[in-house]
């Protein structure tokens, strides 16, 4: 009996469940510098003074130091609470209680004060609004153009859920680039964007192109997509009139969000850039730290 008791711990150890594979470790090429410097401080002060929301902060963007240090920022309108619950996004989810009709003026004035040469405007999803917030979108772009005529604008607009009248209003303000991110390949939509549809986002891009706009979209890598799925996504985007594509590494914002499946090597990002151009896209920004608004000022020169 004593001999049996002595062997029990050994038996338990031998029959224990196999160890869970370790999570992939963040590689060196994903290290970024902390935001510092006088220009960053200036933008920080203006954003706080004017009570503005930026996706730089809400989205935990790794390029915030570089972009704000250059005196630029991506502004998020229509509040900072989203009606969607995408598994990758750090923006708060819930029932928005903010609808500020004065926001277009404040954003336009802040951009004028900052002397921004190229502004990127984005927003949360406002599915509870009949027009998806389209009137605020239009007034914001028009207001920026009135106060800063030389400022070029990219609008990164959400999924309008096939409200095509809302889309027409959103893109009619005079912006140079209209972006709508598909975010991932079609097979991962249910996991990554459960309230969105891959084909509907493609149609939104196609309708934007048919309206004569310069079109842009973005995909996050490292969520479990295959090379073949990436090739298909690029083909789909090119077939629906996309001009500009950004490709970057997905980074898990908190433990509550979907985990990183793989850290993509810079060489593969370079390969995808060449593949995208070969498949008919006019401009591909591809790299581990690339985000939708990264080097956005370059995209206004892409021919329509």
TrEMBL record:
Pathway where this protein functions: Protein modification; protein lipoylation via endogenous pathway; protein N(6)-(lipoyl)lysine from octanoyl-[acyl-carrier-protein]: step 2/2
Pfam family name, one: LIAS_N
SMART domains the UniProt entry points to: Elp3
Keyword Transferase among record annotations: yes
Catalytic activity: [[Fe-S] cluster scaffold protein carrying a second [4Fe-4S](2+) cluster] + N(6)-octanoyl-L-lysyl-[protein] + 2 oxidized [2Fe-2S]-[ferredoxin] + 2 S-adenosyl-L-methionine + 4 H(+) = [[Fe-S] cluster scaffold protein] + N(6)-[(R)-dihydrolipoyl]-L-lysyl-[protein] + 4 Fe(3+) + 2 hydrogen sulfide + 2 5'-deoxyadenosine + 2 L-methionine + 2 reduced [2Fe-2S]-[ferredoxin]
Gene3D superfamilies in the cross-refs: Aldolase class I (3.20.20.70)
Residues that hold [4Fe-4S] cluster 1 according to the record: 56, 61, 67, 293
Subcellular location field: Cytoplasm
Coiled-coil ranges from the UniProt annotation: none
Enzyme Commission code(s) on record: 2.8.1.8
Claim: NADP is one of the keywords in the record: no
PROSITE patterns for the chain: RADICAL_SAM
Enzyme class, first EC level, given as a word: transferase
InterPro entries linked: Aldolase_TIM, Elp3/MiaA/NifB-like_rSAM, LIAS_N, Lipoyl_synth, rSAM, rSAM_sf
A GO MF label: lipoate synthase activity
Entry similarity comment: Belongs to the radical SAM superfamily. Lipoyl synthase family.
Name of protein: Lipoyl synthase
